[in-house]
Amino acid sequence: xxxxxxxxxxxxxxxxxxxxxxxxxxxxxxxxxxxxxxxxxxxxxxxxxxxxxxxxxxxxxxxxxxxxxxxxxxxxxxxxxxxxxxxxxxxxxxxxxxxxxxxxxxxxxxxxxxxxxxxxxxxxxxxxxxxxxxxxxxxxxxxxxxxxxxxxxxxxxxxxxxxxxxxxxxxxxxxxxxxxxxxxxxxxxxxxxxxxxxxxxxxxxxxxxxxxxxxxxxxxxxxxxxxxxxxxxxxxxxxxxxxxxxxxxxxxxxxxxxxxxxxxxxxxxxxxxxxxxxxxxxxxxxxxxxxxxxxxxxxxxxxxxxxxxxxxxxxxxxxxxxxxxxxxxxxxxxxxxxxxxxxxxxxxxxxxxxxxxxxxxxxxxxxxx
Length: 369
Prior knowledge:
It contains eleven helices and 18 strands.
């Protein structure tokens, strides 16, 4: 099995450790190791070599022909090396991306969770909303636009509205880190038309909440937790800003019609797992917000220990079945046990340290040459 991920991804480290316990051969692949710390060989029509596809990294050599499962967890793009001529940068970047795409396509016979192309299209929010409506999920009145007049007209029709970016963003400014989250917006809050045109956004009518729901799907199996966002700072807009608050209402079951619609939406989007976010109104209506094909789910088990998501994720990857249905064993491996057995913070720190040491050695060798 191969896990495509990046640094500081606890989810990938946990699932790798559990899959190893279950007797599988597993490798976490850091995409941004390419090309400084990793390389790939793809041989065609050459009988004089052992394995036609190999990945060479600091953890050794992986026979890509033997990879039967790919967890497309948090893939990272290749990192263009420093020191190149400015005129060559675009060519090198283009070649690295084409090369990466090429060897990933060589793994098409493996079970992907989720497939690369559909994972990318799934993250297109307008496509999610379009398909959500076709499968019968309720969505708020929404405008996705960069036309100032349309945006201002929408906000006049919906005085209680929120703004969301089309993709999340984190940036640094004057030594501080900022992130993009859902926020209330009125016509008076809007910037100049030039910026509205330059930065398209999602504008939605704010939905009155009784509570919210995070529902993690692996195949057809669903593990959901209620979230009392009223008790979370800024929860009226975006509970994820203070996700550590742990104001959960406990495990919850989705209505049968909503759960079936989620499965149909995954089929429409071409994904086999995903994290769904809903608002449940005081009238009991379930309003779809979005699905994150690579969403966080450890916190769901932390908030609702009844859901053995670590065990379910491993069983799902082992099954290689888009229609996977989880059968809970008598004693599933749980998060509370796992964190007692492994020091994941140390593991992630070691990952970074080993790679930095290798980069330093490579740079010293290049200088000496």
